[in-house]
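Two records follow; treat each independently.
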Amino acid sequence: MLTGKQKRFLRSKAHHLNPIFQVGKGGVNENMVKQISEALEVRELLKVSILQNCDDDRYDVADQLVEGTDAELVQVIGHTIVLYKESEENKTIVLP
């Protein structure tokens, strides 16, 4: 689990990032979870945006992504989810 201080640090790091995944009408599926997992291994920190036509609640979507990717939820703000997962091979972010 991340501490409050670590979450604040990661939020500041994520601020300038653009969302690279979008959850739409279909919701979260296996293929999307796999792709997000692979992206997290490379980037460690990423944003996922939830489109207007997504039927699921944004917190449900966040939970599904956290569960599927084994990542940490940094924050849900508006229609954007910030996820963090420590990389095994490409570690670049050093948590405080």
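The next record belongs to a different protein.
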Amino acid sequence: MISSFVTRDGSRWMPKYLSAIDGATCIGCGRCFKVCSREVMHLHGIDDVGEILGPFDGEEDDFGGELNRMIMVVDSRGRCIGCGACARVCPRDCQTHVAADILAA
């Protein structure tokens, strides 16, 4: 079982990995994506009834007129290093992070 990790100076640290983003709360601002060096999440389009349409390819992509809004979706959770940068910049606190020791158990 993992008890903790250490930083370069020997301080104890427990990574918390991004496991989910609440699509009902997310406003699709992209702040988390911009600070993530690992491309763990991407913008996806969502329609009027809340169905995810797919990854957003660019400003002109409106998913055939079905696009209602954008949300961030965790699509590569295995790439997360648990740094927590995304949580620090999220204005809506819509992310769920799980500590490394809980994932290992």
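Discussion point: The domain at 5-104 is CATH 3.30.70.20 (Alpha-Beta Plaits). How would you locate this feature using only the token line?
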